[in-house]
Amino acid sequence: MYSIMQSLDKLRNHLGSFGVVCNDAGGTGQVVAMLADWNLDPSWVRAEGPALNIWREELPCSRFASNLNWLGSISTLLTTTGWSSNVEHEARALAKNKGIYSISVLDHWVNYESRFTRNGVTILPDEIWVVDEYAEARAKIAFPDVIVIRFQDHYARRLLRKVSPVSASAPDAILYLLEPIRSDWGGFEPGEFQALKYFFEVLPLLGLPSAIKIWLKLHPSEEPRKYADVLSSGQRFETQIFCGDLASAISGVQWVAGVQTYAMTIALAAGRRVFSSLPPWAPPPVLPHRGIEYLRDRIVT
Predict the structure, then answer these.
(1) Contacts (Cβ under 8 Å, ≥6 apart) of 25
(2) pLDDT tens string 103-117
(3) What confidence tens digit (pLDDT) does each residue in 198-226 have?
(4) Which of 60, 189, 248, 285 is the most buried (most CB within 10 A)?
């Protein structure tokens, strides 16, 4: 049995010679939390998109690179597994060609194979890290020839320490966790807007305070202007962008909603009542966590 301690020893043995390549926000949060808890410093970090802001905020003293030319100087590569960039895939391909040991972190529960494929070319890592039993089971089925290691969810543990207990005195507001869906579900607009409209439609049926406010929490990869039309459309409920961090956002409410973002699982673990706005015409839900209330299952409109 390949143990967790062996995997940690692998990185410790290469201390000063392992690098990180990341773009995906969720995966980067997990990687940063892991390395911070283990007191490990990469030799190089190639971070793009939302990952760059996360890394600079959490580990600003890291050695950042603007390219992948340093790959030949490391022994171990650690990457995230996002969809919105090719940099992680390119890094894994280079590592494979150079005989560099490659580790990837999966913080998702679906579409595993496609996360490692670009233009029909699949590049799998030597080892995959996951953070819960659901992902572990699915990854072992999807990649039977790849080592799969399950660690505790370092990102969730660090975040939950910052979340205040549920308070009955919290304002009458529901936190809506936004995310890019990257599918229109056969419709004419992105899925995140379809889900948000569905949420506005069914919100009066949830039995929550009639004057409830909606706090929209942007995904790290999104800009506020993306939802400008929503904020100016005169919705029945007072709606505004919440500008604080995720822990503060969850701390200030009793209720949380979203489509199927990882952040909803954090809210669930923090004792909040969590709703999914995945509409009836969308595919089946992907979050395997018990306790999330799917509006399409309980409300007929």
Answers:
(1) 49, 50, 51, 54, 82, 219, 220, 221
(2) 999 987 777 888 999
(3) 999 999 999 999 889 999 999 988 888 99
(4) 285
The residues of the chain that CATH labels 3.40.50.2000 are 4-160
Q: What is the pLDDT of residues 270-286, one digit of tens each?
A: 999 999 999 999 999 98
CATH 3.40.630.30, domain 4-160, yes or no: no
